[in-house]
Amino acid sequence: MICEKHFLYEDRDDVFLTTYLWEPSPELLAGEKRPLVLVCPGGGYLNCSDREAEPVALRFAGMGYHAAVLRYSTYGERRDDFARLATDDYLKPHILYPVQMRELGIAMLLLKRRAAEWRIDADRVAICGFSAGAHNCAMYAVNWNRPVLTDALKANPEELHPAAVILGYPVVDFGITEGVCDADRPLYADMYKAFIGAAEPSEAQFAQIDAARQVTADTPPMFIWSTAADATVPVMNSLNLASALSKHGVPFELHIFEEGLHGMGLCDQASAGVTQHMDAAAAKWPELAGSWLAKRFVLDVPKGE
């Protein structure tokens, strides 16, 4: 495995793409190109979770794909920064929407423009996100061919096109507050302020960042999973997104597991921060996602004699 870090900005070390590329081998696909899964960790746009980063990338690498993890712009990894969100003069305008979505586009361009060198199948690059990272992926999925990305990045739509999208407990309908536990409501206020610049966004702002409202027939196929017990991101986010995909004829697969709290990652000990992050039923999602992905990303294994 060839692991490298690629910084997206010359003057920042907090935004970077880590690639996990298979070594070329005559015994494995004869050294030919492979599909890639690009992972966006969650963290409420306040940080990027380690538990939803490398462990997930390595799981997809174990399926035979190249993988990459994007550490996009967030409010900051330092917890003492978060308390300062209460003061308007400590907003960070340079990380407000749509910066993170455009960073995903920059990462996509880097992967596709170096596809020959890195033996990546540029036509088969998927994006995979969790929670806020899933929001970033979902917003990218509904905007890949719109000026907010194409004009800003001076790229043609095909360069930005994701072949498939995998979303774990996605935040895609911010207008939904039913089911959010009281303990998590301050987190939403912090996230809004860090991401949009307002603790109480207007309806117009919600409409701008709610991916479920922006689905079109051009939205790529999606695999979505969540848990009915998630008290931080209500399951209606996933259900509303699936409904929108169905309405527009976009292929999708949806899995709602009965139990499991928010932020479970792989749902097993490989990514668990606490024992509550492990659930045997929900831990089946990578296998299910792998089967779904294999329909689109079949590896070009040569025929034997």
What does it look like?
- With 305 residues, this protein is α/β, with parallel strands linked by helices.
- It has a single domain (2-294), classed as Alpha/Beta hydrolase fold, catalytic domain (Rossmann fold), CATH 3.40.50.1820.
- Helices cover 31% and strands 17% of the residues.
- The protein contains eleven helices and eight strands.
- The protein has helices at residues 54-61, 79-83, 99-113, 115-118, 132-143, 147-153, 157-160, 185-195, 203-209, 236-247, 285-294, and strands at 2-7, 16-21, 34-40, 66-71, 120-130, 164-168, 222-227, 252-257.
- Strands 1-2-4-3-5-6-7-8 form an eight-stranded mixed β-sheet, with helices on both faces.
- The radius of gyration is 18 Å and the shape is globular.
- 46% of the residues are buried.
- The model has no long low-confidence stretch (mean pLDDT 92).
List keywords for this structure.
305 residues; alpha/beta; Rossmann fold; 8-stranded mixed beta sheet; 31% helix
* Elements, N to C (H/E): EEEHEHHHEHHHEHHEHEH
Category by helix and strand content: alpha/beta
Strands in their spatial order, largest beta sheet: 1-2-4-3-5-6-7-8
Number of strands: 8
**Largest beta-sheet characterization:** 8 strands, mixed
CATH architecture: 3-Layer(aba) Sandwich
Q: Helix count, per DSSP?
A: 11
Number of domains: 1
Unreliable sequence segments: none
Topology:
Layout: E1 2-7, E2 16-21, E3 34-40, H1 54-61, E4 66-71, H2 79-83, H3 99-113, H4 115-118, E5 120-130, H5 132-143, H6 147-153, H7 157-160, E6 164-168, H8 185-195, H9 203-209, E7 222-227, H10 236-247, E8 252-257, H11 285-294
Parallel strand pairs: 3-4, 3-5, 5-6, 6-7, 7-8
Antiparallel strand pairs: 1-2, 2-4
Helix pairs in contact: 3-5, 3-6
